[in-house]
Amino acid sequence: QVQLVESGGGLVQAGGSLRLSCAASGSIFSINSMGWYRQAPGKQRELVATITSGDSTNYADSVKGRFTISRGNAKATVYLQMNSLKPEDTALYYCNALLQLPLAAPAHYWGQGTQVTVSS
Fold it and tell me: How far apart are CA 28 and CA 48, in angstroms?
């Protein structure tokens, strides 16, 4: 059983900052990568940022230079520092992990989401 628990969402004015956190727990053998996705009302879920076990990062063009993804020392945590927030960043943000349970193939796991609302 794997759990991804997100925190840190909220309401912020345009130009402000928020920091999202996600912690993975359970019988995890290894974590290949972790990341953040978001889904705005009426839109498809989209990638925001990912980070691999080797600390390689990937960002959506829309957030480059404003958002920073990082991993915690425990390596089962991931953070998303969001600066210079815009109203178009408003969405439900989901934590994702590509991880492997003992004697199982790697699979994607999702958190329940944390709401980020940016007011203009």
Answer: 24
